[in-house]
Amino acid sequence: MATIKDIAEKSGYSASTVSRVLNNDQSLSVSDETREKIYEVAEELNYRKKTVRLLVKNIAFLYWLTDIEELEDVYFKTMRIEIEKMARLFNIEMITYKISDGIHQISDTIEGFIAVGTFSDKELAHLRSITTNGVFLDTSPDPNHFDSVRPDLPQITRKTVDFLMEKGHTEIGFIGGTYHNPNTGEDEMDLRERVFRRYMEQKGLLKDSYIFQRRGFSVESGYLLMKNAIQQLGDQLPTAFYIAADPIAVGCLQALNEYGVAIPNRVSIVSVNNISVTKYVSPPLTTFHIDLREICKNAVQLLLEQVMEKRKLVKTLYIGSELVIRKSTN
Predict the structure, then answer these.
(1) Which are the contacts of 39, defined by CB distance < 8 A and separation ≥ 6?
(2) Nearest 5°: CA angle at 136, between 133 and 141?
(3) How many CA atoms lie less than 13 Å away from 202 in the CB half-sphere?
(4) Strand pairing partners for 51?
(5) Is residue 128 packed enough to be buried (19+ CB in 10 Å), middle (13-18) or exposed (0-12)?
(6) Counting C-beta atoms within 10 Å of the first and last residue's C-beta, which end of the chain has fewer, N or C?
(7) Cα dist. 119→65, 88, 185, 226, 234 in Å?
(8) What DSSP letter does each residue of 171-238 carry, written as one string?
(9) Global pTM?
(10) pLDDT per position as a tens digit, 256-302
């Protein structure tokens, strides 16, 4: 079996340099030619072949969220951190562009991109004009041209309703945010609400008065929406709520606790994302765990298929989820 020393001797570089290159040491300053030579020799000698990765350069990470949006929902911050980790793991040289930079600041020589956030039709058209390689996370804004990896929110929504009905609930409400359409500037119904309405209607259980939403997915939004629900519905408050995201659910719990509404004896709560704080709120939240690491890993792998293997067939990948049952439901 080939060793670091073997690769060093054949490539003409020191064992220390070879070791640091093969372990993707980002602090090492060597030329691209040096890296490529070491990778070639390592491949030739079959040295730990599965862990040796060629450097993939000129990949853009489009983080199309404002600082406030990231602050309100840790889901996206976690996604960004995971993408950055995966880039290092897969030896990808990645440049981050933010929504504040503007779409035209992106280099027209990029090999491909990974994108998070909401993009207008004009922005999508610009991306198509500079590359055919791209993967969107969490949404599928251009499924005819670019890949996407996303949690299966329709499945989560239907599973939530089924779970609550199995627990004996028929009075089920929804609290969530809205989708901001960048083309019209208007707020539109979020996917979770659309599926919830349709599925509840199929069950003959839909009540418009049980549905509350406003722009944003923050703790503050959840608090205000649940406060409105309590004040408007009083004794007619449903016995269970499906909450679109954990930060909203945390705010809902605050309002319910403030108004003395017993959880889960009077109102059960099911949420989405399973962020770290959900274990520590009172009561701990029943929520769907979305594996962001798996989503980000698949996104990077899809992009590498496009860039390295020249795959042209567009893929949309839905990642399943797991219901983590805690004390906010009975």
Answers:
(1) 21, 22, 52, 53, 54, 55
(2) 100
(3) 9
(4) none
(5) middle
(6) N
(7) 10, 26, 12, 30, 40
(8) -EEEEE-EEE-TTT--EEE-HHHHHHHHHHHHHT---GGGEEE-S--SHHHHHHHHHHHHHHHGGG--
(9) 0.80
(10) 999 999 999 999 999 999 999 999 999 999 999 999 999 999 999 99
Residue 71: other Cβ atoms inside 10 A: 13
Name the token pair of 315: 């893929």
Contacts of residue 317, defined as CB under 8 A and 6 or more positions apart, other chains included, come to: 147, 148, 149, 150, 298, 302
- CA atoms of 304 and 310, how far apart (whole Å): 9
Strands (E), 47-167: 56-64, 92-98, 112-117, 134-137, 147-151
Residue type, 254: Q
Nearest Cα neighbor of 60 from 36, 26, 83, 79 is 83
* Contact (Cβ atoms closer than 8 angstroms) between residue 212 and residue 240: no
Residue 66 has pLDDT above 90, yes or no: no
**In whole angstroms, how large is the CA radius of gyration of the chain?**
24
